[in-house]
Amino acid sequence: MDDHEHEGESVPHGAHGRARTAAEHWAAFKKSPFLPAVVLTVILAAAAGLFAGSYTYAMANPAPRHIPTAVVTGPAAPQQRAFVADLEKALNASLRLTGYATYPEARNAVEEQREYAVLRTSGRGVELDVSGASGASVAQLLSEAAAKVGPATGVPVTVRDIKPLQKGDPRGLALFYISLAAVIIGFVGAIQLSVHARGLNPAERIAFTLAYALLGGFAIVAVADWWLGALRLPFVESWLILALTMFTSGMVFTMFNTLMGRWAMIPTWGLMVLLGNPSSGGAVSWPLLPSVLGLIGRWLPPGASVNAQHAAVYFRGHQHAFPFLVLAGWSLVSCTVFWTWRHRHPGGREPAPAPAHAAGA
Question: Could you report the per-residue pLDDT of 22-74, keeping only the tens digit for each?
């Protein structure tokens, strides 16, 4: 036995005997499940903070900027000017006043969802008509401020809610919640299809997304209206709005899944939940949101869904095409991207092989 050999010891030789370099450790780590686990840990921690931050920033302390208000024009009564000036001080915001020749014209502007309140002179006092259905938070803020400003300025003030919310939804949050359900279940459904029905071909995937959107929208309306009685909904219109919302949300995830693979949840969550829901105007009305959120919220699927539902439930006959165009636009873009780059989508199945011809045929 050689001097360098000892019983029970093996002599290291070749690559097995040397320590791995940092590059080799990194290469092994990249191939292991630990890399995506570490990345997900960091992303989830950041998402938790961003989720709390986005909702707190938008909803915890809503403050008015410019509140669209209709004013019935007439003799410039001094009490009206004094009331408006003190009301703006109390709100720490400005009323975006628009003049209308008659009260019916001003009231129609509220129905068209251009204005949130109507102000007019009445004798020695003023009348302030608010619209709870236009925005419960705005109506509450105006009502509370007017009740304080009137006695302080010596101007008699009459406040009325000309468009009250339904009894089952006194705070105006039910429409936000049903739209939120459609948004979240929309992309969660697409995630589940990608996991449990991975073999669906592109046309089949779009068809099944549409199928669960239609059934899901029906279920939401049935629970909110028929079962709980929280809202009286125009069945067909609300159902189709929710179905379109759910389909759009599902296809947005499918689009990102095509472009980004397993990381598709990040942009989907950021667009639909972190940004879209706080800016939707459902929990806090647009005039009370930070100006940037109030502007972009109308162009995102959650805001378009809430906007369409508000008009369907409270402003029948005054529905606008814009929220439907927003939802349809997102759906069209998502479907087009998915279809154009469908070969990159992680799902699908190979075409079945043609049957072999019998020998000698």
Answer: 777 778 877 778 777 887 788 778 778 876 776 676 666 666 778 899 999 86
Contact between 238 and 223 (Cβ < 8 Å): no
* H-run or E-run covering 122: strand 117-122
Total residue length of the chain: 361
Confidence (pTM): 0.82
Q: How far apart are CA 189 and CA 216, in angstroms?
A: 10
Q: Are 153 and 89 in contact (CB under 8 A)?
A: no
- Residue 275 is which amino acid? L
Pair of tokens at residue 127: 């009348």
Q: Are 170 and 104 in contact (CB under 8 A)?
A: no
Return d(Cα 51, Cα 254) in angstroms, integer: 22
Q: Which two tokens stand for residue 293?
A: 């959120």
φ, ψ for residue 132 (rounded to 5)?
-60, -35
Q: 18-45 as b/e, with b when 16 or more CB fall inside 10 Å?
A: eeeeeeeeeeeeeeeeeeeeeeeeeeee
As a whole number, mean pLDDT of residues 316-331 equals 95
pLDDT at 253: 97
